[in-house]
Amino acid sequence: MSKVSNRTKIATALVGALALAGSNFVVAGPLADVQKADSSLHAASAASQQKVDKYFDQAQDMLFEYGSVADERESLKSYNDYVAGLVADQQKTLDSIQTDINGVDKLRQGVVPLMFKMVEALDQFVNLDLPFNSEVRKERVENLKSILNTAEVTLAEKYRLILDAYSIEREYGSFVAVHTGKLSLDGKEVLVDFFNLGRVALYAQSLDQKTAWMYDADAKTWNKLEDSYLRDITKGIRIARKQGALDLFALPIPAAETAQ
């Protein structure tokens, strides 16, 4: 083969190689673009996934918060219903109190005259009763009369004091007592022991135990007792003073129809 032909072959081979290399450069350009686009897609997908995860987490937080708010709302509703019930009950109580207050004036109009009548009746009773503890009892009645006309004492307190006085007078009817005092007889005063058996009878005995009297409620005088009663009245006085054992003793008493 000639040298020319060999050179031609070599040239042809170089041209072919160059052509092939050129074709590779041509193909390599679009492939790189595809790879870049694919990377961008992956990056965008990752960013989108992050946003989705973020929004999901926010949605979960909001759902939890909504559940908490809903529970709190139910709790507040139950509490409000409870408070509303209390308020309604308190309003009923206030209405009842207001009704009572509105009736106070009417009650006062009825109670005040009643209290005056009670004190007047007590005054008459003390004057007509056996004359024991007379000074104390009369002083108690006078105090009640004074209190009734005092503005500083409440109506309730006045009524309580009147009831206390009645209670004391009631207790006098069942007690046996002795106290020393002076008895006026024929213009003279005699030191005696007054001995009363409740409201059944009232006696007096001189301190020397030689003379005794019984009070006559009808005549309002003291009648002398027979000497035969001296021993028994002495026994009764000693028992009342707790200076002797309980025992029977016999004393005259006013007739039932005249006893006060």
TrEMBL record:
Domain of life: Bacteria
Keywords, in A-Z order: Signal
Signal peptide (UniProt feature, chain positions): 1-28
Record's protein name: DUF3450 domain-containing protein
Species this chain originates from: Shewanella litoralis
Lineage, opening ranks: Bacteria, Pseudomonadati, Pseudomonadota, Gammaproteobacteria, Alteromonadales
